[in-house]
Amino acid sequence: MYPETFWNKPVPAKYRKALEGLELPLDISRRDLFRRVAFTDSGRPRNILGSSSKVEKGEGAGVLTAIVYLSPGREAGINMCPMAAGCEAGCLGSTSRRMTWPTHKKARVSKTVWLMLFREHFLRRLSWEIIGHAMTAEAMGMKPAIRLNGSSDVLWENYNVPQSHPEVQFYDYTKLPAKARAGVPDNYHLTFSLCERPESKGRALDWLNAGRNVAMVVGGESTTDRPGVMLKAAKAAAATIIERGTFEGFPAVSGDDDDIRFDDPPGAWVVLYAKSGALTDSTGFVQRF
After folding, report:
1. What angle is formed at CA 8 by the lines to CA 2 and CA 12, rounded to 5 degrees?
2. pLDDT digit string (tens) for 128-138?
3. In the chain, N or C: fewer CB atoms in 10 Å?
């Protein structure tokens, strides 16, 4: 798959932070690094696809979802989210407390290095796992779905991943403008994620006017109350908008009931209440009411 000249080259300096996070020597060979990121400490092949409590909610609706967790932002020293800013602080904590565990971080960093430095092998392994997931879903009488960016914002259509599996429904959130994701295939559903960047609101309207959806994280006014009080206020803010049914002239639906974003009505706000680290966000990523 790779020529010997590839293995003989030193690991690029941009992976220094990743190596430190994995507690590996900076002069490790590419061959040894491959063994450490593509396999677990016990020597078993590392799985790329995983799950979460959020995506598991879809099983009640007949959707079997698998999710890929890479390093968010610059966690691995390589920016996996080109538009990341205020969302980084609450990203993993908002997904699951387990995602903050050292073992989970090590797995994310390993898969990120695996993709970036040993891309051909990573994509072959990912394709094999997607085929297996689709076969499992079929046997269970369920619809197979894959969320490729559980914690990243990679343009997977550029790697031909969704195009290679037309029988599978892919979906993701993204902060990139609509024109940057214009080439996604029909089986890849994207939801734009509103953030604190000045241009984000305009980009959100572009997505909505094109009949595509926009996710908005909302919270109460305070960022200094007790966590339980802030969480209650965030839920109340989300519930108010959802019960109203519209926001700024477009339909508004809940994004917390499940993770089946591809079933949301087109041209709608997807409202999520702030959780964990996002409760104290002061960057403007969380829309406060």
Report:
1. 95
2. 999 999 999 99
3. N
